[in-house]
Design goal:
- With 129 residues, this protein is an alpha+beta fold.
- It is built from 1 helix and 8 strands, in the order αββββββββ.
- The longest helix has 17 residues.
- The radius of gyration is 20 Å and the shape is elongated.
- The relative contact order is 0.25.
């Protein structure tokens, strides 16, 4: 019985030493609509990390063929995602990395892109541009 208790205690200590915080999603807010097809994904910084990993997908299970995955450096708790599709719902989450461990994923949030692009300038029919 002492051997089993010692093993369990050892596992608990290992978990406490290496457990790292997950980032907390910041923006776009969960359920945001009418978002641009180039968007800034942002989460809070976690101290003691060596960077972050992230996933963006059209399915909440992060298993579609268009899954976007990546890593950021220590000082970057945000990424700009380009070339998204119009009128599409995307799901995203992120995790903290260290040299020896990775946190659990943050909460999964979603956003939906706008239906079309809005032309701002030049105005329709403008001349001498």
């Amino acid at each position: 019985m002492k051997k089993i208790s010692l093993i369990i205690l050892s596992i608990m200590i290992h978990f406490i030493i290496y457990a790292i915080d997950s980032p907390v999603n910041v923006s776009p807010i969960n359920g945001a609509t009418n978002q641009a097809v180039t968007i800034l994904i942002d989460w809070n910084s976690v101290t003691g990390n060596s960077g972050y990993i992230y996933q963006i997908d059209t399915t909440p299970g992060f298993n579609s063929p268009i899954l976007i995955e990546g890593e950021t450096s220590l000082n970057s708790s945000q990424i700009t995602v380009t070339s998204l599709c119009f009128n599409t719902t995307y799901y995203w989450h992120c995790a903290t990395k260290t040299a020896v461990d990775t946190s659990i994923w943050s909460s999964t949030w979603s956003f939906t892109t706008a239906n079309t692009i809005s032309n701002i300038s030049p105005s329709n029919g403008a001349t001498n541009q």
